[in-house]
Amino acid sequence: MNRAKMAIVASAIVAGASSPALAVEECREPVARYDVRYAGDDRFEVAARFSSPSSRWDLAHFPTPDRPEAQSASIRSLRAFDKAGTPIPLAYVGEGTFETNDKAGASAIRYEVIADHDLADWNIGAPGKDEVAAHFDTSYLFAGHAFFLLDWDMKRCAVEIHFDLPPDWHVTTPWREVDGHYLVEDSWALGQNMFAMGRDRAEQVDVGGLRLNWLMDSALAPVTGEVRDLLSILPERYTALWGASPGSKFSVFLMSDTMSDGGAFWNSFALRFAVPLSEADRISWRHTLGHEVMHLWNGLGKAKGENVPELEWVNEGFTDYLTLREMSRAGLIDPDMTEQRLANIVRRYMLAGRLTPGVTLKSSGADKGANWHAVYGGGAMVALLLDAELSREDDEAFARMLRALSSQQGEGYDYDRFVDVLDRESGGKARNIITWIDRRPSGGEIVQRFAALGLDVSIFGVDEAYVRFAQCPSGRCPPPFLRREP
Question: Which class would CATH give 302-482?
């Protein structure tokens, strides 16, 4: 598996704020053109032509017990052709990879995609259908890397996509429409985005300096208004927090499933909601929606479009805390729920010490699944402590720090540069906090540190944590950095 593909499959979460610089100066023309035609009966015909011959193409590979060949099981009739249009041998070599042994490579390929992904249970051993494909109402939803066979080593230049679909169908995508076709500015963005085809028309909201197109499963009709409200409130708040919009256009896809979760891509993300809808699960999907939207802004743990494993605690832990912070300050969650979510952060961190002893923030991202509590709990603890300590001196200090981090990102951070900049922009507080978090302080030390910051925390063992705010005339009042803004 090549380096590029490994990076793509390892994590699909790359924020729009950190989209890579394009090598457009090297590109006089698009590096590829894909023609997509709906052939009926859940089948799509795809024809691709390349400006330079390729010898290897990949799909993402998320195997499950009932589908060991994962996304590749939906590919049929794949053929390759040389520059003259003569067929050349092509073989599937496993793990989502197709290759030709022809030394000159192929200038074109043709294949069929069967939209049968709903027959597999992507929740077992895979990230879920929100990062693969789904079919709801009259819409076919795909992650680009489950549909387009791609040579990840070709130049990262523009790609054209032409759709031949029934006249009453619509395409929902963040890609730019130009003269009746779509232009993807970076070949990686073809694989690293979700898109949909079908009769369902997406809703649209312009907020926070960006345009959100969103498509929603009719099974989720009871929460449509609530989703619309969240998508109308959160982007504006996030833009105010970061000081800028992460881009201009994003697509959001919301579907029903047996459990709630979500996956974010470069300029799009997808959420799945457990049905039947329940009040308890509402807590989860609201936070998940806020978390995935926040990923569009939080690109601090990225370099040249790829996640940096040593900064996965920033990608996920910071994102989780920032979501909690802004939903609390916007009044989207009440003090009781804010307390519970803060307790979840502490509990995750304490569990990380028991489940993954010796795993530091820097090393946790090497195996995000195994080190889940360290990535999410440890990263969120750092962000929470930074916010609490900086806010004692200046209400806007934490937001200014985030903006400074974003403005100095350039092509991306590695661990050492990120910590250096974070420490400088936090007035020397960050390195102290990171060192303390990596040391695995005792429950008593955690209680004392938070007490000095105005948070009443109780820890019992490693799997129970409770947070209580101070009493005030209106009930329980969060500290200023989490208090609802007028």
Answer: mainly alpha
